[in-house]
Amino acid sequence: MLKLEQINKIFNEATLDEKIALDQINLELKSGDFVTVIGSNGAGKSTLMNMISGALTPDFGNVFIDEENVTKLPEFKRSQFIGRVFQDPMAGTAPNMTIEENLAMAYSRNKKRGLRIGVDKKRREFFRESLGSLHLNLENRLNAKVGLLSGGERQALSLLMATFTKPSILLLDEHTAALDPSRAELITNLTKQLVEKDQLTTLMVTHNMQQALDLGNRLIMMDKGQIILEVDSDKKHELTIDKLMAEFQRIRGEKMTDDKALLSI
Q1: Residues near 207 by Cβ (< 8 Å), separated by ≥ 6?
Q2: 2-95+149-263 fold
Q3: How confident is the model at residue 179 (pLDDT cuts 50, 70, 90)?
């Protein structure tokens, strides 16, 4: 469903600020895979997500989605088969539009546009039913402006919108990092529920090692633009945070020093 082939990306090349963001990245996700991505600050995790979504173009290498080479395809065209939830709850929705209007936009993402009624009775009932699965009472607030929702409510809505059309790839970019612990747990549980329900092929970046261990069937660790560790489903359930830290030290010859990652343990 997703294949990255020899992806390289260098920022500020041939200057004093040159940074190799991605270095010979090869990664393949089969249909239904849920891969969690862990790594310190500057490891290349967000650049990886931007490369898949089309926000960035590789210096060389190719991106394939569902066996189609999308390397040259712009972000807005890839959006019809990619769903993405960002770290900032404000990023995935339109605050000045209602919940219903946001859902209507997400619902139409991979459909042809035309001169027809945006939301009819049948679609409104579908929206209510979908919102009801969140257990946040949003199904009774369809006409509420999204900007008035709490961070947790807004992130739950973003997640629902990203999965509405059953995208080929779901990208979760530290989507619980900005939430308080109780809301983060809510979104984590909702993520598991939605991904399992539709067997969505998912790539999730997180600084929280325990979250990376608890979710998904595969795990990769990145450092300095490289994938330094890949763990398949057979070995993932045996991993602990201590074993992950030991693996990093074994591979790199030093301890992980990223405070953000360590504090989220």
Answers
A1: 38, 174, 177, 258, 260, 261, 264
A2: Rossmann fold (3.40.50)
A3: confident
